[in-house]
Structure formats: C-alpha cells, structure tokens
Amino acid sequence: MKSILTGRQLGLVWIAVVGVLVALPWVGADPANIRLITLIAILALSVSALNLTLGYAGELALNQVAIYAAGAYVSAYTAINHSADLLLCLALSVVAALAIGLLTGAPGLRLGGWTLAITSFFVVLLVPSVVNVFGETLGGFAGLNGIPLPSLFGRELSTEEFYVVLIIVAALWFAVFRNIVVSRHGSALLVLKESPVLAAAVGTSVYRTKMVTYALSGIPAGMAGCFAAFLDSFLSPVSLNINLVIVILAASILGGSMSVYGAIVGAAIMEIGPLRTSAFDQYATIAYGVFLVIGGLLLRNGIAGIAHRLWDARFGARRRRPAAEEPPAAEFRFPEVEGRALRISKVGKSFGGNRALDGVGFVAEAGRITALVGPNGSGKTTLMNLVSGYYRADQGTIELGDRPISGLPAYRVARCGVGRTFQTPMVPHGLTVAETITTGRLGSHPVPMIASALRLPAHWRALAEEAESGRRIMGALGLSHLAGVPAADLALGTRRMLELGRAVAGGSALILLDEVASGLDESDIQDLVAVLGKLRDAGVTIVLVEHNFALVRAIADHVVVLAEGRVLAEGDPEEIATHPDVVSTYLGAGGEISGTRLATAESE
Ligand SMILES: Nc1ncnc2c1ncn2[C@@H]1O[C@H](COP(=O)(O)OP(=O)(O)OP(=O)(O)O)[C@@H](O)[C@H]1O
C-alpha cells in the first residue's frame, strides 16, 4: 500500500505530466503521436477497470469490453439522434456502465470464484449478437456510421480539443482511482483479497464491497467506450471481441494489475509494441496470448512491480526498517469499552445427522476472561463460529449485552462489537502494521468512498482519528517500532498481537480468541498474558478457545468445559482442574483436555 512518493509529491508530478500532455498539440507534436496517446489513454481507462477488480479486489471479471461497448453505443446513439455533447455522452456512458455492471455482476459475485470470470466473459461474447438484434438502430454487424463530432457546451470540438478533454478526464479518473486504493477502501479490498472470512470479521459486507468495486470499475470502461465512439466517427461490433479482452488482460498483467499507473504502462506497451503493427495482425490473438503468458510467468505484478522493487532496494529498506524496540509503554492503555456480557442460551447445531452442539448455555461475564475447553470434536469451534455469525444456530439464542446477535450475518455481528483472532493469523499482504490495525475500524467507523476519492474533510478527519487510535493501540501492544513494517512478514507471535490490536481498533466489546497461544514460545506467551490482562482491565469481554490448560489457569477467570456438544462443567480454573467429572472423563480419554495433560498443568 505504501506509495513510492508522498501524496503531495505524486499530485505535483501528475499535474506536470498532464500539463505536458495537454500542451503537446500546441507545441507542434506530430498528429500521429497525438492519436497514439489518445489510443493509449482509451485503453488505459479500460485496463484500470480490470486492475481495480483483479489486482485490488482479487476478482477476475472480464466484462470490460461489454461495458466499453455499452458506453460506445450509448454515446453513438445519443450523438446521432439527440446531442453530441461530450459531457452528456460521458454521463450516459457511466450510467450504462453501472447498469450493465450491476446486472452482470450480481449473479457472478454472489457465487464468486470462476463463476464471475465465466459470466462476465459470456457477456462479452454476446456483444455482437445484441448489436445485431438492434441492427436498425445500432448498425448491426455492418457497423454504425455518421457519428458526429463531439461538442462541449454547444461548440464543436476540434481533434486537439477532443484530445485535451480525454487527457483531463483520464487524469481525473486516475487521480480518483489512486485516492481510493490509497485509502481505507483500498485496505478493505486487500482484506477481502486475503480472505472473505477476515473481511466479515472486521465488519465489512463482502458482497457489498465486491459489488461496489465491480460497479466502480465500470466507470472508466464506459468512458473509454464513449471516447472510442467519437474517435473515428464509426463503430463496429467486430472489434469488440475476445481480442480486445486479451489485449486488456495482457496490458494489466504486463503493467502490473496491482498498480494504478501500471494500467497506463501496460496500455502504452500494447499500443506501441511491435505486436500492434499490421504485419502481426493476422496472428494477433496468438501473439497477445503469448505476451500474456510470458508476462504472467516472469513478472510479479508486472513492470510496476519491478519499479517498486528497484525503488525499495535503493530507498525503501531504510524507511521500513523497524525502529529500536520499545517495551509496551505504561502511558498507552487500550481504550476503555463498556463491558458487555455474552449470554449463550440452549444453543443447538447439527451438521446433517451429527449433533455438534446440544443445548449449550453459559454466560461470559463482562470484562472477564472465559476459557472454552474440551476434547477434539466437542464443539468449541462450532460455538465460536455461531457467535461470530459464520454459522446459524438451529436452536437457542446468543446475546451480547442486551442485544440478540444470533442469526445476524458475520459482518453485522462484528459491527455489534464482536472481534476475533484466528488460529492461523490472517494478516493481509500489502499492508503495514499500522495499516493492518486500522483495518479493524472498517466496519465500525465507516467513511463514504466519495470522501476518500475526492479527499473531502471526512477523509482527513478519519485519517487523523485512525492515526491517534493506532498510535495508542500499537503503544499498548509494544508494536510502535514496527508501525511501517509490512505486517505479513512478521513472526507468528507479533502477528497474533497484531490481530488483537485490529480487534481492539474496531472497539470490540467481546473478543473471541481461537487458540491464540498455539505455536508461541514462552516469552511470546508471557507478552500475550500481559496484553490480555490489559484488555480485561479496559472492560473487554474475552472468550478464548485454548488447548493449553496451563495458560488457561494463568489468565482465565472462568472455564467452561464442553464434551460431545454439551457443557460438562464450569467454574474457576482451580475447580475445573479438580472437577470429578472433568478428571474422570479426561483421565478415561488419556488425561488430556484437548491435548494438554491436566496432570502436567497441575504440577506447573
Ligand atoms: N462444517 C462442518 N460440517 C460438518 N461437520 C462439522 C462441521 N464443523 C464441525 N463439524 C462437526 O461438529 C463436531 C464439533 O466440531 P468442532 O470443530 O466444533 O469441535 P472442536 O471442539 O472445535 O474440535 P477441535 O478441538 O479439534 O478444533 C465434530 O463432530 C465435527 O466433525
């Protein structure tokens, strides 16, 4: 997520580049070169649409050509029959793009994975047939002639003026695109790309995020179609085919799909490259395909990825190196939360004929640590998934404070104040430690996308609040010195701490910990015990599923033992360690509570 330049420096460079491009026709640039830049800008808009969905959201959607076609035909029809005003046609193209995006994205995004790639690709294959069905209006296979020159505020635009409008519109889109991906909305996409389960756990609706991204990505593709329609005053469905899909895909892969400016680099290569010369035209599809495979195999995040790595090797390491380690500072405390108890009552859950939970009920008191223990298959994970909203209970109720949360989807449970960590920490690639902690606020402290895209005051306010909250949380966790370090590179113990920080950042009143100590060494466990104590002091209700009974004895206020989907016993750790039912049950099963010998725990 870290950009090579600061936002201000990048803005100045961008304005300078756009200024030079806009001035070209008036300083005697060759019209052929102006046309080449026009083609690059149009293709770059379409490629940016793919970069947004594929690179940032991790969804392979191939419908850019269909949306481009919609933008082109809507503009051409409007220009021929009503008005050739460029701004009106651009606006209508965007509306058409959003409509087609929502219509074609809904089923694929709901089903996910390859379904989206296939449905979106299928829509592209339909383009020529649809154009032919409306042959009289849209010109059919023969093409649509006589598209008038575009105008602006009643004045016809010259070729040069049309070029200037295109450059300015494309520059504005790329600025908005960059602002979105370098904001919490970009972080939300990286979280989603890492795992939809994680996205829901931080309170973001997976479907809504995908849908918004998909619809947003239609905007540049639709505008590209509009400009393309006016460029040659002629439109043919013949060129809106699989070739164009492959050109866009190859440009995205070559330029770097996880890059804003990679779209421009990739588009430039595809337009300027030797493969675009007429001699290659008959082999174009094969050539693009080869280009695509080579780019995909040899380049990690394309040319933009190479540029980033080179820059990092030269300047980045110094900036990202951890500062001197500091112990968790006493002045940094976790923000106080209003204690809320978790009440589980008569909860049942079956998988087919397997009764995983059968009338489970207990209370995890507010501001206390409750441990959930039991042998393998006793239903601990199922219960955690029910509380988090990943599963629905067949019977019973789950309440946080006085609010029922059973039956809510996972992202809404998270927004009610339930945070969690995972057995294998889920830390998205591409985010620093500070940014990862901030992702905990995605669901609980929403900021409108428009505010981030246009850098409105709400964006800056949220940024300042996030920085202050992150500083406090990293201070309390002892992670301040790692703030700028890529989070995914950290050791297991630090990533577990980070997950706790993320849950705290969201203001969670209840934090569910799934085997939080597994794989940690003695010193990591000591740090963890200290942090969990601080969280409890801040009023957070903690429920932990733990195999390590020695740890349970060290930190839990209350222990609930599950066996075969029922509560076998509950009490404080000492009571449980000597509880006759627990001892007889587990001694009979080898003296273990989920792998930890009670006898060993007792002797420690
Ligand atoms: N998604 C699922 N589909 C079918 N059966 C499941 C599913 N999840 C859990 N079960 C079954 O429910 C029962 C309880 O499993 P669960 O994973 O909740 O136990 P656990 O106490 O967490 O075990 P472990 O300590 O091994 O993680 C087991 O019999 C398991 O096979």
UniProtKB/TrEMBL annotation:
Pfam families: ABC_tran, BCA_ABC_TP_C, BPD_transp_2. GO terms for cellular component: plasma membrane. Residues 342-589 form the ABC transporter domain. It comes from the Bacteria. The chain crosses the membrane at residues 12-28, 34-54, 86-104, 111-131, 162-181, 213-235, 242-266, 286-311. CDD domains: ABC_Mj1267_LivG_branched, TM_PBP1_LivM_like. Keywords: ATP-binding, Cell membrane, Membrane, Nucleotide-binding, Transmembrane, Transmembrane helix, Transport. One of its GO terms (molecular function) is branched-chain amino acid transmembrane transporter activity. Its main location: membrane. It is found in: Cell membrane. InterPro entries: AAA+_ATPase, ABC_AA/LPS_Transport, ABC_transp_permease, ABC_transporter-like_ATP-bd, BCA_ABC_TP_C, LivM-like, P-loop_NTPase. The keyword Lyase does not apply. It is a multi-pass membrane protein. This is Branched-chain amino acid ABC transporter ATP-binding protein/permease.
